[in-house]
Here is the input.
Amino acid sequence: MARFLVTGAAGFIGSHLVEHLRSDGHTVVGVDRRPGADVVGDLLEIDLAPLLDGVDYVIHLAGQPGVRESWSQFPAYSRGNIELTQRLLEAVRGRGLKKFVLASTSSVYGEAPMPAREDGPVLPVSPYGVTKLAAERLCDLYGRTAGVPWVALRYFTVYGPRQRPDMAFSRWLAAALAGRPIQVYGDGGQLRDFTYVGDAVVATARAALNPVVGVPINVGGGHAVTLRRAIRVIAAVTGRPVRVEYLPAPPGEMRETRADTTRLWQEIGFRPSTPLEDGLWQQYQWMLSGRA
Here is the structure.
């Protein structure tokens, strides 16, 4: 069994990933600024050397998320997504690491043609997307100049239990439960490739343990739907009537995200399989349990 360092271990994807790796018998050291991790601290300030001793794989999920706030809070995004990634890459230089896995995002594609291919254009339309693309470029730099074996996973709209409360499905389910209008930015015709967190976690673990290096890989659910369709699913799983309030689309809002997952299948041998209805039901049940 292997030894993993997981950053952002107390977060949405990170907490699921730590459980998954440990259930498979691996040793995991989880780091986060928030309580719930094995090591609590700011990765830009704490000593990384002791954390990396004996580590085979680093899965770097920590970062500054969100598109809308990246316009007004860019220093936090630069620090959390670019500077932190560089500090970790510098720390693993020369350690004989088996893999450095970076959590990237579909936001790097921006205005690129869909379905997005990893070998196609990247045209981000938000500062958030720019910072995550810069993190990918740093991985490539350290791969070419220092031999760090890396892979970047471009997650497409991950959802499920423990999703951050600011994300759309969390907000919409909470609104449906409270009888409030569901607020949608834009006309609701935007296409999204929603990815269930359990599928994202399996893809992440396999990408770490798989020999593939030096490339980005899309992690998408495989079936893009409109936001209007997703809201109808929310109405079905909650059994409640929903009202929708449409608001102006903010800067940086992508009209469409659809993943070409050919590389995910060819290099890792994995296809996400959780239907949106099943995944949203799991997230709804988690919210009902009072753990949201």
